[in-house]
């Protein structure tokens, strides 16, 4: 069954965008996933198809109307796929979320604009909220692409080697070790000699050690979780 992504947006021309090339683009061509962007505008109100209005309580900016958003969501088949709203107010999106979503039949993504979406429709339609980082973008389209790429590359048949996913950052709770390729000497910099040793056990041990060091120094939050699961550390 094809993994189906439906995206509700004011800018449907942005899809598949960067997802139409390389790994995700080839997977799209092969029918391993499908991507349909739905224009929110026709669901808008009045002569100008307004999708937003001023915030109750005052303040700057505009808010996307619940009735307009609900009309767009309800026009899609109610097939149980998770509905996701990318927002800085959401839970941080993680590799675990990508795996869970990739294991299902697809997603519906609601792209916000302006100050965001009326809270009532998010609650009433059981929408999951995810952030892609502690910064603010102008719209949900780029976060939607990031979420989708993270999921699609995990779908069966999308990545060439099944090893590529299992060795990556976050798979074992650690960041990945550093990579090196030819030339072995570049601008006076050589590569770690263990990588030339041909001893696969030593190489694996060195990589694991590097993963631990990098995680400890760059992501103390991940390291604390990892260390709590490994009493020997
Ligand atoms: N007023 C919102 C706030 O302060 O949390 C920001 C709204 S932002 C200008 C417009 C839209 O961009 C959001 O509704 C959301 O869909 C998207 N967006 C912006 N930053 C994001 C982030 N870090 N993660 C996920 N979505 C984001």
TrEMBL record:
Keyword 4Fe-4S annotated: no
Catalytic activities: guanosine(37) in tRNA + S-adenosyl-L-methionine = N(1)-methylguanosine(37) in tRNA + S-adenosyl-L-homocysteine + H(+)
Occurrences of domain tRNA methyltransferase TRMD/TRM10-type (ranges): 5-224
Keywords: Cytoplasm, Methyltransferase, S-adenosyl-L-methionine, Transferase, tRNA processing
Any one GO biological process: methylation
Cellular compartments annotated: Cytoplasm
Annotated function: Specifically methylates guanosine-37 in various tRNAs.
Subunit text: Homodimer.
UniProt family annotation: Belongs to the RNA methyltransferase TrmD family.
Protein name: tRNA (guanine-N(1)-)-methyltransferase
Phylogenetic lineage: Bacteria, Pseudomonadati, Pseudomonadota, Alphaproteobacteria, Acetobacterales
């Amino acid at each position: 069954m094809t993994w189906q992504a439906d995206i509700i947006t004011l800018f449907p021309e942005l899809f598949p965008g960067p997802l139409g090339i390389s790994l995700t683009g080839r997977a799209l061509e092969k029918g391993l996933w499908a991507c349909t962007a739905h224009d929110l505008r026709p669901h808008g109100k009045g002569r100008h198809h307004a999708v937003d209005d001023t915030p109750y309580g005052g303040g700057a900016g505009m808010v996307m109307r619940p009735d307009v958003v609900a009309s767009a969501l309800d026009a899609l088949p109610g097939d149980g796929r998770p509905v996701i709203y990318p927002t800085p107010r959401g839970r941080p999106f993680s590799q675990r979320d990508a795996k869970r979503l990739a294991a299902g039949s697809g997603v519906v993504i609601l792209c916000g604009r302006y100050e965001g979406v009326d809270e009532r429709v998010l609650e009433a339609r059981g929408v999951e909220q995810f952030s892609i980082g502690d910064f603010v973008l102008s719209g949900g389209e780029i976060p939607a692409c990031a979420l989708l790429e993270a999921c699609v590359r995990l779908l069966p048949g999308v990545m060439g080697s099944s090893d590529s996913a299992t060795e990556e950052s976050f798979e074992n709770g650690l960041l990945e070790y550093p990579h090196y390729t030819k030339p072995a000497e570049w601008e006076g910099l050589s590569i770690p000699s263990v990588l030339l040793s041909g001893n696969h056990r030593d190489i694996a041990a060195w990589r694991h050690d590097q993963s631990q060091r990098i995680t400890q120094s760059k992501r103390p939050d991940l390291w604390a979780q990892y260390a709590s699961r490994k009493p020997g550390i």
